[in-house]
Specification:
The complex is a heterotetramer, with 2 copies of chain A and 2 copies of chain B. By secondary structure, chain A is of the alpha/beta class. Chain A folds into 2 domains: 48 residues; 222 residues, 2-enoyl-CoA Hydratase, Chain A, domain 1 (Alpha-Beta Complex), CATH 3.90.226. Helices cover 47% and strands 16% of the residues of chain A. In chain B, helix 5 runs parallel beside helix 6. Classes of the chains: A alpha/beta, B alpha/beta. The complex binds zinc ion (2 copies).
């Protein structure tokens, strides 16, 4: 079980610790503790179901950021074979917050791109917490254009709090880099399948997220602004930093997979094991792989023109307004 | 009178000084420039295209002031003037989105943060859009995205040049992911527009950031910025929180962005129409 | 007359100084110096012809680098009207060693690009002595692609000692930037007319120099390596730094306009006034403008396919070898 | 026997150890690695694809060693093997170019600094070229440019993948502007090649600089570099003279260029053929 414990998970971990203790002392005691152990195990299972099966949007946001959650490289290694990593934007720098390369999805050759987060402090520094600079956004585009030239479908993974908001990122054209990806991806002549495996933070996520099929993991989120950002802007007079404010913002933003599916903004949800993908990653790998394979099969039936027309129309109709 | 009616009704040049609520310039005959703190004569500011005669600070213009500044007298015809937001998320934090919309409409006299239509620059017909910062910080929700997209599509269909004047804090968070998707929608429309060879010129005014700068605003064939306009992706406060230090003065200014190669040219407001006209002549 | 005096010009300037002195004292003297003055003027003219009309390759290299020589901006201001400067590579930086923008050549709309050198130390720092970093090379390409989109012919001016050989230039991909320009320019769907107005230093020059018509000013040079570089590599045991070595290298490299025209590597030579373009710039502006106008007229008659085919063949046949 | 005859004559795999003059590795059973100064057993180095078993330093390979390393046994057929330089400038400084050419031919057993032809990688037919640094530093004059261009054109005509192994100090100054123009010629040929969708992979080995790196070498769809290879435009000495300071260690190495986004991947020589084969499979 995970080392890193979220606030709302604490009751489960309390009982779990009790159980571990009980199991440890059991052989040393004279009285038979089997019943107590079974009872506690039962209790834990019930508590898990009670807590995990009705996560609030803000709780899901926290799960989506769990350090033990599988990251893009885990999906690459468990879903694809023969991965060959390709580096660089051929312009400025190899931004490691973006990973990509060739791989086989079963017997189909594909190009993979994704945000790469770390699982610990050291990795997170290396990957800049999965937050790309413009060169990372451009690296992703370069790989996608390479895929287009050689007719390889693009499989994209989203997992970022957002494009990096730093001085140099601004100076090197973060805005233009994102805009260019959106423009180019909208017309890329190969299928693009996007899976949001964790955080879908605004423009930095969308820069790898425009495509023909958009999946979200059950506990991932996708939002125009982080709940924290939203809370601090709208609730600055009250306490925008409080958990309550963040929870309120998370709910208001309708950022969960369920909310977005309901509004037609995504195509499907990959269910996660109780407590999140890190409680049983292989289950998620299998389900996501299945979704990718069948989507690819479906998209490959379309002519390029039809594919691009559908993609355009998908985004063309997004938006809600009244005309008088 | 709605802006649509107003624009339709007007047949002659409406001078800048008759326009609605002014931004950053306090009322009164004399006032203090917010940028240089000098005392300036209101009429002179207005005559100077709302540019401070002392320090050249470019005050924000309203959509109608911008129309008057750039388009030939009486040539503007608005499109889709009645389009309004439908609050798709029933959004309410501290204040409901519907209330914000009503207030913005009252303050600006506009229905949304952008006005689009067709008009002429030195007798050349163009498709034109201009954002108004008074309307929820010029933020882009479904209506802005839709009106921009329709303007792009119209320019494409009619083989006309496209000119968009941007002024925006970014995506409109009250419409959640619908707002984010306007970035995809408008950028996809630009991709189609660029398959033909009609020119698209964007004018970045103070400020142009977030979802607007990261979509249609920076995808133009030529990007003009007004002097000292704040231009970037992340807002300065977000950056300061991230890097945990104050930003240098002039960071994210048009001048710095020009130096970093992101902008084609900076043009003083008084030369804007003339430069635009010349550039269109080179491209079209 | 120029402030900056080259070694081989010294005899002329000596006499000139004498003449100036004579003219100054003449009104004060009792004897009539008119004859002496006329004689001296005559002598100077003869000396000028003798020295300037048979410049050696190394002397021409020196003239090509003369600080008073007209620079790209002078040609822009004197040949074109309505110039609007366009900045930046939309990637990293606006490299001022490259200048470009829209202008009219008579009534023809064109895109102008060129290396910009300074005429004094301050300007040279600003323009980095006309030696572009990769972002300058990419800026030029961006303007040329813009020209292609809007069907504007490209008028390019070459005047650089070479691409800047610095750490950051290497890190940002100088080699790839140059290569990309060559590849893209070879297929650019508008006419490209190139004028070498001063220094044509290797790859940094060629990066703006691939085109349909290549002109050289009489005292410009164009070379695969600077005479200094060549001398220091081949004559390191002897004194590669000596004027003699540089002169020898300049001759061996066949880098003058005459040598290159003879070998079919360029299309025409713009004659300069005695002593170089800076002795009477307007003469050069007129002659170069005439050459540009008539070349453009000629090239505009070609279909795009024909234009590109001719451009390809032009370079395709360059090279001398024996096949057994 | 010329390299052409040699290549034509051979029908079976010629192991690396039988090849001609070695670079950087002194003769003898035991020797010192020039990179790490460790004593290394010659046979082991050769068995290890001329990579130092102690420090992984990749010693330069000759053209024929490279053919043996990368292409299927006996599959290589050379093109244009008889092409030689004609000294277009009658170049002579300190030593005449003709003498340099003769010496290079003697040392290398080659006619010029590149060998081109067709061959197979895991049974896949490709057009292949490999430069040899022993021949006037792998410099590109008319012959190299012409042979590279013909190889590109051949790959285009026959719809075959193109693989070029680069090793060059740059343009060949003894052919003056003819050399510089080979950059234009080869790059123009690549532009045409790229209009179709056949893959072009370049392999940058130690060193790849100057006119070769600034033309066809870096225009590949994928760029592979060997570990620690020196890759750049300007040579290190020229840079040091310009900036007037010593360059940091590892500057212009393949590893630094990868970090700066200029190279797709670095591959150890022992994995080179296998990786190349896999990449071709993804692209073709
Ligand atoms: Zn002021
Ligand atoms: Zn070693």
């Amino acid at each position: 079980m995970a080392r890193y414990v979220l606030d709302f998970e604490k009751p489960i971990f309390e009982l779990q610790r009790k159980l571990d203790l009980l199991k440890k002392v059991s052989p040393l005691e004279k009285t038979d503790l089997t019943a107590e152990i079974e009872d506690l195990e039962h209790k834990i299972e019930k508590l898990k179901v009670r807590i995990y099966s009705h996560l609030s949007p803000w709780e899901k946001v926290q799960v989506s950021r769990h350090p033990d959650r599988p990251k893009t490289l885990d999906y690459i290694n468990n879903i694809f074979t023969d991965f060959i990593e390709i580096h660089g934007d051929k312009l400025f720098r190899d931004d490691l917050s973006i990973i990509g390369g060739f791989g086989f999805l079963n017997d189909v050759k594909v190009m993979i791109v994704g945000h790469q987060k770390g699982k610990n402090a050291k990795e997170n520094i290396l990957y800049n917490f999965g937050s790309p600079h413009p060169e990372g956004i451009r690296k992703a585009l370069r790989l996608m254009k390479l895929a287009e030239k050689f007719s390889l479908p693009v499989i994209s993974f989203i997992d970022t709090a957002g494009a990096y908001p730093g001085i140099e990122a601004e100076e090197r054209g973060q805005a233009l880099a994102i805009a260019s990806n959106l423009m180019e991806m909208s017309a890329l002549k190969v299928p693009i399948i996007v899976s949001n495996i964790g955080e879908g933070g605004s423009g930095g996520a969308l820069a790898l997220g425009l495509g023909d099929k958009i999946f979200m993991l059950e506990n991932s989120y996708y939002s125009v602004i982080s709940p924290e950002g939203c809370a601090s802007i709208l609730l600055k007079s009250e306490n925008g930093d409080s958990s309550k404010a963040k929870a309120e913002a998370s709910t208001a933003l309708k950022l969960t997979a369920d909310e977005l599916l309901e509004r037609g903004l995504i195509d499907g949800i990959i269910r996660e094991p109780l407590g999140g993908a890190h409680h049983n990653p292989s289950e998620v790998f299998v389900e996501l792989k299945q979704a990718l394979v069948s989507s690819l099969l479906e998209l490959k039936k379309l002519s390029t023109n039809k594919l691009l027309e559908k993609r355009y129309n998908r985004y063309r109709k997004m938006g809600v307004f009244i005309e008088s | 009178m709605s802006i649509t009616e107003w624009f339709k009704a007007k047949n002659k040049y409406i001078p800048v000084e008759k326009s609605g609520t002014r931004l950053n310039i306090p009322d009164g005959i004399w006032s203090k420039c917010a940028a240089c703190n000098e005392i300036i004569f209101q009429k002179e500011v207005v005559r100077n295209f709302k540019v401070c005669p002392k320090c050249n600070h470019h005050f924000k213009l309203t959509a109608e002031e911008r129309v008057n500044l750039l388009l030939d007298d009486g040539s503007f015809v608005e499109f889709n003037g009645g389009m309004i937001s439908n609050d798709p998320l029933d959004f309410e934090i501290s204040k409901s989105y519907r209330v914000s919309l009503n207030q913005a409409q009252e303050i600006s006299g506009l229905k949304e943060a952008i006005v689009t239509g067709e008009g002429k620059i030195d007798d050349r017909l163009i498709i034109f859009g201009v954002m108004d910062f008074r309307f929820i910080g010029g933020s882009m929700g479904s209506v802005v995205g839709e009106k921009v997209t329709r303007a792009i599509e119209k320019a494409l269909e009619e083989n006309l040049p496209l000119v968009l004047v941007c002024s925006s804090g970014g995506a409109r968070m009250q419409e959640g992911m619908f707002s984010l998707m306007q970035m995809a929608k408008t950028s996809a429309a630009i991709a189609r527009f660029k398959q033909k060879k009609n020119p698209y010129i964007s004018i970045l005014t103070n400020p142009t950031t977030g979802g607007v700068s990261a979509s249609f605003a920076t995808l133009a064939d030529l990007i003009i910025a007004e002097p000292e306009a704040l231009i970037g992706f992340a807002g300065p406060r977000v950056i300061e929180q991230t890097i945990k230090q104050k930003l240098p003065k002039g960071f994210q200014s048009a001048e710095l962005m020009l130096k970093h190669g992101m902008i084609d040219l900076i043009v003083h407001r008084k030369d804007l129409k003339n430069t635009l006209s010349k550039l269109l002549n080179f491209l079209y």
